[in-house]
Amino acid sequence: MLDINTIIMFSLASSMLALAPGPDNIFVLTQSMTNGVRAGIIITLGLCSGLIFHTTAVALGVAVIFQTSIIAFTVLKYLGAGYLLYLAYMSFKDASKTKLNTRQKNLSLTALYRRGIIMNVTNPKVSIFFLAFLPQFTSPQNGNITTQVFLLGAIFMVCGFVVFVLISILAGKVGGWFSKTKNGEKILNRVAGTIFAGLALKLALEQR
C-alpha cells in the first residue's frame, strides 16, 4: 500500500501536470467552449477512462512496446492524428453553416464520452509518459508493484478529472457568453478546428 507522503506528493505532481498546457486539457477547453460545460465534463470522463488503458499498459509492461516498437508507436499516433483531423473538419463544417446551432446539436453522452476515450487512448505518448512517471512513486517496501501502479493511475485520474472539470466550467461559461455575440459560434468553431488541426500535426510529428 502507498504511504501518505507518496500519495500527497504524487497528487500534487499530477495536479500540476494536468494544469500544464497539453493536448488533453486544450481538447477539453475547446470542446467546452463550443459545446458547453456538460460536454466538457463528459469528455473529461472519457479522457480519464482512457487513462485506464495506459495504466494497464504500464502495469503489464505493454507500454514498453510503444517505447521500443516504431511500428506500434507510429500506427497509434497516426490513428490519433486522423481522428483529430476529423474533428477539425467537423468544426470547420459547423462554422460554414449559415444558421449555427452548435450548442443545440445535443451530441449524445455516449458520443462525447467516446470522443474523450479515443482522444486519450490514441496518444502513445501518454503510455510512455506513464512508463517513466508512475514507477518513480513505487517501492518494493510498499507491497506489490503492479497494485501500486494501478493505485497511482487511479489517483492521477481523480486529479486530472478535478482539474479538467474546473477547466470545463470556466471554458463553458466563456464560450456561452461568446456564442451570444455576433458570429460568436462561427468564430469558436473555426478556432476549435484550427486547434484540432494543430494538435493533429503535433501528434503526427511526435517522436518516441
Counted by DSSP, the helix tally is 9
Work out the strand percent. Answer: under 5%
Secondary-structure element order, N to C: HHHHHHHHH
Rg to the nearest angstrom?
18 Å
What is the mean pLDDT? 85
How many strands, what sense, and barrel or not for the largest sheet? none
Low-confidence stretches: 98-104
Helix content: over 70%
Structural class: mainly alpha
Work out the count of structural domains.
Answer: 1
Spatial separation of the terminal alpha carbons: 32 Å
DSSP E strands, number = 0
Give the CA-based shape.
globular
Short description, anyone?
This protein is an all-alpha fold. The chain has helices at 4-19, 23-35, 37-59, 63-68, 70-95, 109-121, 124-133, 145-179, 184-204.
Mind explaining what this structure looks like?
The chain is mainly alpha-helical and 208 residues long. It has one domain. It has helices spanning 4-19, 23-35, 37-59, 63-68, 70-95, 109-121, 124-133, 145-179, 184-204. Helix 1 packs parallel to helix 8 and helix 5 (70-95) runs antiparallel to helix 9 (184-204). The radius of gyration is 18 Å and the shape is globular. Mean pLDDT is 85; it is low at 98-104.
